[in-house]
Design goal:
Length: 138
């Protein structure tokens, strides 16, 4: 009988090798063009998930969104778009609203936003809810 750890590892690897999903964020660029980004659902390791959760607990909205992108965002070939070394650039050099739109599109923020609904208003609602949660814990 296969032990539990080996089976969990095998099933996680199968998930990572699964189909890429594509998120389309309408009117993302200033010229009105859409942005397409790919990801594999539920592909964070336990360690990565803990880092994202720690950023949420601290109320670090930009860090949460940036880590989500680092761990989840892929190109059409399944290769990672960002590395951990990009964290500072992602949190300090681009719009926070764009960061939130991207992380929402990857369906991992828990905000329950459908891909077609990712827009400025939903991103602002997420900022508000994450900030409120962080304030309640402090």
């Amino acid at each position: 009988m296969e032990n539990i750890l080996e089976r969990m590892q095998r099933e996680f690897q199968e998930r990572l090798n699964g189909d890429l999903k594509k998120a389309v964020i309408e009117d993302f660029w200033r010229n009105g063009e859409s942005l397409e980004i790919w990801y594999v659902p539920e592909s964070m390791t336990g360690e990565q998930f803990s880092k994202v959760n720690a950023a949420i607990q601290k109320g670090d909205i930009a860090g949460t969104a940036a880590l989500t992108l680092i761990y989840m965002a892929r190109n059409a070939d399944g290769e990672r778009l960002f590395r951990r070394a990009n964290l500072t650039e992602l949190t300090k050099m681009i719009s926070g609203l764009d960061l939130l739109k991207l992380s929402q599109a990857l369906e991992v923020t828990g905000a329950g936003v459908e891909l077609e609904e990712v827009d400025d208003e939903n991103a602002l609602t997420l900022v508000s809810s994450l900030t409120d949660e962080a304030l309640e814990k402090n």
